Amino acid sequence: MLSRIKNSVVNRGNRFVGRLRGTMPPHSQIGFDHEDAQKYEFEHNRQTIKEHFPRVYADVEKEKAAGGLWQSANDQWFRGDVELFNSWAEHVRNRKCLEIGSGPFGHIAPCYWMKDRVIIEPLIDQYRNAQLELTGKTFFTADIKCYASPAEQIIPELIGKVDGFITCRNALDHCEDPMTILLNLADYAAPGCWFLLWTDIWHLAGLDAGHHNITKSQRAMDAYLTGLGFEILKKGEKIRDAAEYVEYGVIARKRQAS
After folding, report:
1. Half-sphere exposure of residue 82: CA atoms within 13 angstroms, side-chain side
2. Which of 73, 143, 195, 238 is deepest in the core (most CB within 10 A)?
3. pTM of the model
4. Distances (CA, A) of 211 to 11, 127, 201
5. How many angstroms separate the Cα of 215 from the Cα of each of 90, 151, 208?
6. What does the pLDDT look like over 57-82, one tens digit per residue?
7. Where are the alpha helices (DSSP H) in 139-217?
8. 3-state DSSP call for residue 219?
9. Is residue 186 within 8 Å of residue 160, measured between CB atoms?
10. What residues make up the domain containing 132?
11. What CATH number is attached to the domain comprising 161?
12. What does the alpha-carbon distance between residue 165 and residue 163 come to, in Å, rounded to a whole number?
């Protein structure tokens, strides 16, 4: 049951969250507007918080009490590779970790065992307030450094400082300028930093107010990441309907300086 919750609710990459909301506007070919996208995102995620936050928060607390990590090798990135997952977990535990576009729950916020957590999410204050209003609890606690700003805006104090890992899941196609965000992430990543990326890169059925096309080419994404200094270690699991989406997911690592 816990695995299903993680994969269906916390993992914003799955279709479940969008279908669950029940109010997604029909697909249409429209221009991308950042303000409209933010309104779209918050309205849908506010309902997700209302329906699922109390249960997910309780499950995270139970996992924490048992000394669990919340994350596991059985996810869309590691795909059962326990050795690779353990290597990642050992590396990130005492280093700075960054998430871009966490949404209402996120990947690193429940990971109490990570020493230094940072989140960049324009709507994080609204998500925190919605959680506190509902239960008096929140995932976005004071020990997590939070930036309520668009990821396109470079944060100078993070440049070269993220030595643990960066994760960005189901966020790039919700942003105005995905390629600039990837460039910023490469600047934040210190040599040896891991990168867990998953995103829809093309919406074959058309776009709505909250989404943006990036490219139809997974090969182009590989080339861009490689050019930014990352070595791709593993391709992620396919979780989308191939008739509706072109998706892209990888585990990568910032190359050591030569």
Report:
1. 0
2. 195
3. 0.87
4. 17, 19, 10
5. 34, 19, 16
6. 999 999 999 999 999 999 999 999 99
7. 178-188
8. helix
9. no
10. 2-254
11. 3.40.50.150
12. 6
